[in-house]
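Recall that a protein's primary structure is simply its ordered list of amino acids. Everything else, from secondary elements to tertiary packing, is in principle encoded there. The following example makes that idea concrete.
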Amino acid sequence: MFAYIKGSLEEKANDYVVIDVGGVGYKIFMSNMSISGIGELGNIVKVHTHYHVREDNISLYGFLTRDELRMFELLISVSGIGSKSAITILSNITPASFALAVSTNNITLLKQIPGVGAKTAQRIVLELQDKIKAEQKEFMAIEEQEEIKTIISGANVEEAMQALQILGYSKKEIEKAFSKIANTDVSVEELIKKGLSLLAR
């Protein structure tokens, strides 16, 4: 329902903040890490939010980064982990460290988090490992494509790529080779030479 909330930070407590938006104060539950890093009272702040609805309760949970929000969403998808437990976990480990621990099956690290015993740690790894690995692969693929798009821009590069394709190399092979060339701001002939050198390996 709410993607994010941006307004004046009016109150900071142990487990929540109050943000004023147009005269309405939103009570938003957050991890200790996020509360520590959100800023000073009176500042204009922006938090990503998760709108949590249960039969007996409606709550807003806030996060300083999209990574933290995603980690929260993954955690509450694990059987036996509720929103409050997820916030406790977020208060004790960063999203990057958590993703690494899950993907590498580091049960020992996860058990060090308050409230996470051996069974819970094993369940987290069992239910989230494939999801996190899939997301990491997707992110790496996007990064690689963005890097290639940056590198293969320019008239000389396009001309060199066409020449290499005529020689029988596929566009994908050429893009991969060109992604390893530090400086593409050179002549077409030089680009072809460098490309051939890399493609021949």
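The longest strand covers residues 44-54. The chain has a mean pLDDT of 84.
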